Amino acid sequence: MLWQEEDTRPYECDGLTAYRRLPMVVALPETDAQVQRILQTCHALGVPVVPRGAGTGLSGGALPPGDGVLLSLAKFTRVVRVDPLARIAVVQPGVRNAAISDVSAPFGLYYAPDPSSQIACSIGGNVAENSGGVHCLKYGLTVHNVLRVRGYSIEGVAVDFGSEALDSPGLDLLALAIGSEGLLAVTTEVTVKLLPKPEAARVIMASFDDVRKAGDAVAAVIGAGIIPAGLEMMDRPATHAVEQFVHAGYDLDAVAILLCESDGSAAEVEDEIARMKQVLEAAGATRLAVSRDDAERLRFWSGRKAAFPAVGRISPDYYCMDGTIPKKRLGEMLNFIGTLEKKYGLRCPNVFHAGDGNLHPLILFDANDPAQLKRTEEFASEVMEKCVEVGGTITGEHGVGVEKIDQMCAQFSAGELEIFHAIKRAYDAKGLLNPGKAVPALSRCAEFGRKHVKTGVQSHAGLPRF
Amino acid sequence: MNPQEFQERIREAAGRGAAVRIRGGGTKDFYGNAARGELLDTRSHAGVVAYEPTELVMTARCGTPLREIQEILGEKNQMLAFEPPHFGPAATLGGCVAAGLSGPRRASAGAVRDFVLGTKIIDGRGQALAFGGQVMKNVAGYDVSRLLAGSLGTLGLILEVSLKVLPRPAAEATLRLELPQARALESLNRWAGQPLPISASAWLDGELALRLSGSPGALRAAAEKIGGEELERSVAQGYWIGIREQTDPFFAGDVPLWRLSLPSHAAQIELPGAQLIEWGGALRWLKTNADAVTVRSATARAGGHATLFRAGDKPEGAFTALTPVLARLHRGLKAVFDPAGILNPGRMSAEF
Questions:
Q1: Nearest C-alpha of chain B: how many angstroms from A309?
Q2: Cβ-defined contact of A179 to B127 (cutoff 8 Å)
Q3: Mutating which of A171, A195, A408 best tests the B interface, going by the most B Cβ atoms within 10 A?
Q4: Measured between beta carbons, which residues in chain A are less than 8 angstroms from residue B130?
Q5: Rounded to the nearest 10 degrees, what angle do helices A294-305 and A307-314 cross at?
Q6: Distance (Å) from the C-alpha of residue B330 to the closest C-alpha of chain A?
Q7: Any CB–CB contact under 8 A between B123 and chain A?
Q8: Given CB 3.0 to 4.6 Å as the disulfide criterion, which of A27, A379, B24, B200 pairs with B92?
Q9: What domains appear along chain B, each with residue ranges and CATH number?
């Protein structure tokens, strides 16, 4: 247990540093029995509990409770077993995402979801956020790659969601648990599916002189019946930031670049790369570079995976958004972000999981200037609301946490939000697990609706205003 | 009926506390426990709402025939990758999602729930609600859409579903090998750990059928590695339809049919009767007159659960009982969506 300020200070925020709060107490249990005891005690005393993994989350999901226990699973770092025949790994929640693939590598296996923070983020956090990554178009998100989540309810009762079989009797509570942002249960063990490592993989770096053309190229690749292993886009400000940082070999003249990966057997990859090249050329690519070996492939990817820290070097602070939109609206969205850059006087490089329409615009700002922070928040909320307007979502993979809680009011009706609250109550009647995150109180939406009256239509008009 | 009429109907039934039996084409009436209540036929709410092949998303209304969906996707060389069983020409999309059953491609491609991106529903109060959306990645709010897959209509009437769709594989081939069960199970698990394009498997009576899907080059390389004899194309297609639709002779007759869902590497399950094994070992169909306790305890010991899939009657219940903590959560969730307990009562569990 940590309770002195010098010890609890490192836990005041997660990867979203704009929101900070000092926890009253930090608990660092090492065993299931200790987790159970902590939960039983907190439940009996009515003390809030916020679970935390590696603290790399980008939506403030692990922002501590000022009046409760921050429950860090950082000491749960054991790989319980890797079963190569069953192709599963049973790991504790503090095991790093990349470490699962490392321990599986001797068997020719790996864990597919690969968020950019994979060297640091933990599987428990991945489960809480339903993390994706750059290869999830083909291999799915956390929800597609986890077989079982084992943990404790807020009352301290042991619970298993899912099993080593492919389905379970009753409702799919595993699907509900994944992405529940630590509001429904505390995870102490995760069983993940492992996949055979593809025999070969190559990536094409395609340059475009126009962002819209790059967006159309994404649709063209998929329209040709190809599901690339990864399909990412970066605009010029992003490639320039990255290139200074990691020297990935990106085409700095391009207005946008696409990274388009193929994996599979050697024959499949040769065939697919040829087809991809053809489609990309036809879509107006100005330059194509195909990775010649695995070192070059990883170098191309290193830039994409280092995009956030690279941008962090060119600006005191950056604010990362996470909306997802239908791919066909990409061009429109980019134009919209361009106008907001002018409107708010802030720069915004863009990196996208283009294949699945998940955007990560990065607003550059200086948090020491309160006016800039305020402008940044307004910029971000305009982008998020635009995502909803074009048929998308405010968050593709980073979660709602505290950061996007107001925009939940734009995406969901009062009735839908009330269902979310009721689900929460079914699992946690006292509302002690990660309170105040992920789902806004209806009164908060009434307040939000009053501030955001658009074209004369007030959202949540049926709610009492305070 | 249109959605407003569905809403009124459910609201009115909730007021009276009268059970409503939600039903599409009725092709899966046999599945689960006996349904009761006044019939609410969803088939009038039909049609594809949106389909853009390059988005890999199709949105359609619950009453849309599954057959029609597959035809429309087929025209664009795409498919429902979870290969759902129809169990009759009247099968609807709503029924497919509510039943949550997936076909031969499940082990390699994923289940219904893996492809559900968003839903519009009417809950047990008659409220129209939307969850998820039309995009691949969406973590705003709890993943209610996936929860609805396999919920057997107990949480709401599924009005509309958005599904991720995928391109059809460039080529397919089916191999047949002679292998006793234990060796087949071992080989299937071993192959699944290698980069081989296996998209379906079925073992019966010492014969294993393997379907490969992918580029022609990948298929040739895999066939060389695995061996066996290749089935003629039309024979192979018919064979997999027979497995998916349970029209294969194995499924004929009146002996109760059990669905054992197991870890794929679980050893041979020693129970009386005949077995057909799919999903690389993770799905075992058992035709047996053995009693429910015997079947369920043997399956549980192997780490799985047993569903009495087709039988004259199901006095012990169709599904394996839940642990007390999960049963409590189920009751809680049922009350969230259907506080009056009127939607398909008894279909999933005697409790609700």
A1: 23
A2: no
A3: A171
A4: 413, 416
A5: 50
A6: 7
A7: yes
A8: B24
A9: 3-167+329-337 (3.30.465.10), 171-249 (3.30.70), 255-310 (3.30.70)
* B336 in A contact zone (CB under 8 Å): yes
User: Which residue from A165, A172, A416 is facing B303, i.e. has the nearest CB?
Assistant: A165
Of B139, B319, B332, which is closest to A170 when you measure between CB atoms? Answer: B319
CATH number assigned to the domain covering A1-197: 3.30.465.10
CB contact under 8 A, B325 and A137: no
- State which residue of chain A sits closest to B318, comparing Cα positions: A169
Per-residue tens of pLDDT for chain A, all 466 residues: 999 999 999 999 999 888 999 999 999 999 999 999 999 999 999 999 999 999 999 999 999 999 999 999 999 999 999 999 999 999 999 999 999 999 999 999 999 999 988 999 999 999 999 999 889 999 999 999 999 999 999 999 999 999 999 999 999 999 999 999 999 999 999 999 999 999 999 999 999 999 989 999 999 999 999 999 999 999 999 999 999 888 999 999 999 999 999 999 888 899 999 999 999 999 999 999 999 999 999 999 999 988 988 988 899 999 999 999 998 898 889 889 999 999 999 999 999 999 999 999 999 999 899 999 899 999 999 999 999 999 999 999 999 999 999 999 999 999 999 999 999 999 999 999 999 999 999 999 988 776 554 433 445 555 544 4
- How far away is chain B from the Cα of A455, in angstroms, using its nearest Cα? 23
Task: Please determine whether the domains at A1-197 and A315-389 fall in the same fold group of CATH.
Answer: no
Chain B residues close to A199, C-beta within 8 Å:
195
Domain segments of chain A: what residues? 1-197, 200-307, 315-389, 408-451
Tell me the nearest-neighbour CA distance from A464 into chain B, angstroms.
Answer: 19
Enter the pTM of the model. Answer: 0.96
Q: Does B344 touch chain A (CB under 8 A)?
A: no
In this complex, the residue of B135, B143, B168 whose CB is nearest that of residue A176 is B143
CATH code, A315-389: 3.30.70.2740
Question: Min CA distance, B331 vs chain A (Å)?
Answer: 9
- Per the CB < 8 Å rule, is A268 touching B214? yes
Nearest chain B alpha carbon to A264:
B195
Rounded Cα distance between A8 and A445, Å, is 32
CATH of span A200-307:
3.30.70.2190
Cβ within 8 Å, pair B139-A326: no
**Using the beta-carbon criterion (under 8 Å), do A391 and B333 form an inter-chain contact?**
no
Separation CA A348–CA A315 (nearest Å): 11
Whole-Å CA distances, A198 to A98, A305, B169, B219: 17, 20, 17, 15
